[in-house]
Specification:
- There is one protein chain.
- By secondary structure, the chain is an alpha+beta fold.
- The chain folds into four domains: 99-178, Beta Barrel (OB fold (Dihydrolipoamide Acetyltransferase, E2P)), CATH 2.40.50.140; 194-265, Nucleic acid-binding proteins (OB fold (Dihydrolipoamide Acetyltransferase, E2P), Beta Barrel); 278-351, OB fold (Dihydrolipoamide Acetyltransferase, E2P); 367-493, Nucleic acid-binding proteins (OB fold (Dihydrolipoamide Acetyltransferase, E2P)), CATH 2.40.50.
- It contains ten helices and 20 strands.
- It has helices spanning 2-7, 12-34, 45-54, 77-84, 92-99, 175-193, 259-277, 359-362, 435-448, 453-493, and strands at residues 109-118, 121-125, 132-134, 156-163, 171-174, 196-204, 208-213, 216-221, 240-249, 254-258, 283-292, 295-299, 304-308, 329-338, 343-347, 368-377, 380-385, 390-394, 415-424, 429-433.
- The strands form four sheets. It has a five-stranded mixed barrel. Strands 8-7-6-9-10 form a five-stranded antiparallel β-sheet. A five-stranded mixed β-barrel has the order 11-12-13-15-14.
- A hairpin with a 3-residue loop joins strand 6 and strand 7.
- It is elongated.
């Protein structure tokens, strides 16, 4: 055995040469792998391998070479992890599905769509691998008898994630806490931005009002409530009022609000908005707020307009109370809008039939009608006709005798027979005469009397006077026109400068 073993002893010099050839072979192999394209191995390569086998260091028989395993595709990191943990392998389809899912943390406030409602809770889709469940007690501060009083299937609501998975596999949600956090955020934003909130008055206390602002309770001190002297705090219960946040402290759970500041700001914003919407020719609804001797003020929903005394009616009005009353709701016509000075001129008579449009058809010169004396002027008396139109009885037409004061011939409130002298609808004037009626009556009486020379002479003389009256008629018409102009000027002078 010893001699056999020694016959296979290694030649050291040959062994060193073999090592050199191995190293050279390794370097060539590495160089080949770095090249972009593999080239065929040289023909001498097999000889070198055979030579290398001849220089094997082991004295024992060398085992047969094991074939290398087939190349496997390089797995992505997620697949490798899934394979190592024996989880299902992620495919392109599952990746697209997972892309629609979101990752959440407990405490997140997210939006979800209500899928189902029953007495055990509300099932909500929050785009998570599991649906969310809102227990009934987490729906609102006040536990409703029927959850559909608060939410309905299909509603998109805000929820707070309390737990990502409970025993049943649902994500545990709370709408009540989401509303609470949302309310604090709204309150903080409103405080820093000085914006207005809307709050419903829940309760009236001795010191103020308790209000609900989007699920968050706040307090309005009595000094910050904008109310009229006759109003009480109890009258605000159930109302939704504008509010401004003047103090917010989430740690102490305190929100202090002001109705007084918000009401003033809201009125200003409302008035500006309405002022921009108003246009001449519009018909708007309004409420009579108060009356003045020169007209009526009407609230148009945030801004007031004035109906001038002359615009209340087609007939003469001494005081607005003859036509409208405070608190009355009426339709008004927009006559003018001054956006710079924030003034609006209104009319009421424009919405009524214009009697002057048909005055020429209703009244003709020579007609005898009845008229009621309304008021006096230096130049005569104004009287109202049966159709609501006014006419002027000039002072020279009040009596057969010369009159210095209208009150010497007629009385206010009395009705007289008058003769229509002229009708001028374009100028809104009607000339009346009592004297002409008296003359006609005298003529009728004269005709009924016996025909005597004396009477005939009187009649002839009367005809001569009538011709003179015709000449003076032009002077009376001119005087009436001047009187009407003076009347109009006098009415304008009585008005305040800003009316």
């Amino acid at each position: 055995m010893t001699e056999q073993y020694s016959a296979t002893s290694f030649d050291k010099s040959r062994g060193d040469a073999g090592l050199s050839e191995v190293e050279e072979l390794i370097r060539q192999t590495l160089a080949e792998t770095k090249k972009p394209e593999k080239t065929a191995e040289p023909a001498s390569a097999p000889d070198k391998k055979d030579e290398f086998k001849a220089t094997s260091f082991s004295a024992e028989p060398k085992p047969a070479p094991v074939a290398p395993p087939p190349l496997q595709p390089i797995l992505s990191q997620p697949v490798a992890k899934a394979t190592a943990s024996k989880q299902p392998v992620v495919t392109a389809e599952t990746s697209a599905y997972d892309a629609t899912m979101k990752e959440y943390e407990p405490g997140d406030i997210v939006k979800g769509k209500v899928l189902k409602i029953d007495q055990s809770g509300i099932l909500v889709d929050i785009k998570y691998k599991a649906d969310g469940l809102i227990p009934i007690e987490e729906l609102a501060d006040r536990i409703p008898k029927n959850p559909e009083e608060i939410v309905k299937v299909g509603d998109v609501i805000d929820v707070l994630i309390e737990k990502l998975e409970n025993k049943e596999g649902y994500a545990l949600l709370s709408k009540k806490k989401a509303d609470f956090e949302k309310g604090w955020k709204i309150a903080n934003d409103a405080y820093h931005r000085r914006s207005l909130l809307a709050g419903k008055v829940l309760q009236a206390l001795k010191g103020g009002l308790v209000v609900d602002c989007d699920g968050l309770r706040g307090f309005v001190p009595a000094s910050q409530v904008a109310k009229k002297p006759e109003e009480t705090l109890d009258s605000f219960v159930g109302q939704t009022i504008p509010l401004r946040v003047i103090e917010v402290n989430q740690r102490q759970g305190k929100i202090v609000l002001s109705h007084r500041q918000a009401a003033g700001e809201k009125e200003k914003l409302d008035s500006l908005k309405i002022l921009e919407e108003l246009e001449v020719g519009q018909v708007r609804k309004g409420k009579v707020s108060h009356l003045k001797p020169f007209g009526a003020f009407v609230d148009l929903g945030g801004i007031e307009g004035l109906i001038h005394l002359t615009e209340l009616s087609w007939k003469r009005v001494k005081h607005p109370s003859e036509v409208v009353k405070p608190g009355e709701e009426i339709d008004v016509f927009i006559l003018g809008v001054d956006r710079v000075n924030r003034k609006v001129s209104l009319g009421l008579k424009e919405l009524l039939p214009d009697p002057w449009a048909s005055a020429g058809d209703l009244y003709k010169p020579g007609q005898i009608v009845k008229a009621k004396v309304l008021r006096f002027a230096k130049f005569g008396a104004f009287a109202e006709l049966e159709r609501g139109l006014e006419g002027l009885i000039h002072i020279s037409e009040l009596s057969r005798e010369p009159v210095q004061n209208p009150g010497d011939a007629v009385k206010i409130g009395e009705t007289y027979d008058v003769k229509i002298l002229r009708v001028l609808p374009a100028e809104q004037r009607i000339g009346l005469s009592i004297k002409e009626v008296l003359k006609m009556k005298e003529k009728a009486a004269a005709k009924a009397a016996a025909a005597t020379p004396t009477v005939l002479a009187a009649t002839t003389e009367e005809k001569k006077v009538t011709i003179a009256d015709i000449i003076a008629e032009k002077e009376r018409a001119k005087a009436e026109k001047e009187a009407a102009e003076a009347e109009a000027a006098a009415g304008t002078d009585e008005l305040p400068p800003d009316a």
